[in-house]
Write a structure and sequence with these properties.
Tyrosine-protein phosphatase, binds fe (ii) ion, alpha/beta, TIM Barrel, single chain, 3-stranded parallel sheet, globular
């Protein structure tokens, strides 16, 4: 099992502060069957900037530490990049780290809205051959209120990643319900932990796949797991045609 979104590198962002905690997070990942994780420290989110060379160095240090602890987990470099003014130019000048240095870039929207320039930036990234992967759309307030905002972006070629803990119910019933709808309507293509620590933001990837299996069967689990494997190995992820989530009409009121 591959986890494409995690804050596991120590001391870079709001992930673990110490190497010891990071190693414990790796243990929790391996226990549930994860063999590879992409480390995606925050970048340009207003608080953290984590640049290319620093992330690569941190990944190498962490892998050495895991080897010393005999923990069989591969760590690949990545970044969770907030959509910002220079994202297209910086991507063009190889200033950003795509997921495992493939052509997929993990992009975070602000939590409260979808900026008006989102569609244009995601389109321009694709013109450069970069596939945007929108991180946890189910946690964006504007998308939660109107999922057609996400539908338009996916229809125009973006991919999206739902967070395992959203599926597992950690962020409440509404987020869980929306997450399941996004999976059902092919509006998300990956499940990833977005783990920050072992306490309040643990890795719940295996748990989320249990929930998905109960709801949609093994086929859905297989596809979602396979997409992460295809991504990490540099392939193109097949995205089925997305569909709109229909709002339920309240009958008899008007
Ligand atoms: Fe994240």
């Amino acid at each position: 099992m591959i986890d494409i979104h995690s804050h596991i590198l120590p001391g870079l962002d709001d992930g673990p502060e110490s190497m010891t905690s990071a190693v414990e997070m790796a243990r929790k990942a391996v226990e549930q069957g994860i063999t590879g994780m992409i480390a995606t420290p925050h970048h340009q989110n207003g608080t953290y900037e984590n640049h290319y060379e620093d992330i690569l160095a941190a990944v190498h240090r962490f892998e050495d530490e895991l080897r010393a602890h005999k923990i069989d987990l591969h760590i690949a470099p990545g970044q969770e990049v907030r959509l910002y003014g220079n994202i297209v130019a910086d991507a063009a000048h190889s200033q950003l780290i795509t997921l495992n240095q493939t052509n997929h870039l993990l992009i975070e929207l602000p939590s409260d809205h979808v900026p008006s320039y989102t569609a244009r930036y995601l389109y321009e990234l694709q013109l450069q051959g970069i596939k945007p992967v929108i991180a946890h759309p189910e946690r964006n307030r504007e998308i939660a209120a109107d999922s057609s905002k996400l539908y338009e972006l996916i229809k125009n070629g973006a991919l999206a990643q739902v967070t395992a803990s959203s599926v597992a119910g950690r962020f409440g019933r509404n987020v869980k319900k929306l997450s399941m709808q996004l999976i059902e309507h092919e509006l998300v293509h990956f499940v990833a932990s977005d783990t920050h620590n072992n306490t309040n933001r643990p890795n719940e990837l295996a748990k989320s796949f249990d929930v998905i299996e109960k709801e949609f069967g093994m086929g859905a689990v297989y596809t979602l797991k396979e997409n992460a494997e295809i991504l990490v190995s540099g392939g193109s992820v097949y995205a089925g045609p997305p569909s709109r989530i229909k709002k339920k009409k309240i009958l008899g009121l008007f």
